[in-house]
Design brief:
Layout lengths: L5 E4 L6 E9 L5 E10 L8 H21 L10 H9 L1
Antiparallel strand pairs: 1-2, 2-3
Length: 88
Amino acid sequence: MQQGFSIDDEEDELGLRCIGVPVLDLEGSASAAVSLSGTSSQFNEANYAFLIRETQNAAAEIGRVLAQTPSDSSGLIPQSIRVARQAS
């Protein structure tokens, strides 16, 4: 994944394509991941670059939010913060 994303181009399931992007922590290590899946007709040459870029943008934003969010001892985001964010 040297390019910052991975692609499953119908390798696992015929007709299904996926994009995976790591969510990086402050040290640059992957702490989570974001994936996007769709049919081969939904993921095509015309929109692949756009879908990759938007998935990378989403992963970067999640990383920024997680870096600024206090966590409990388990390292998980407290339920109250998750609910508050969903409401806004």
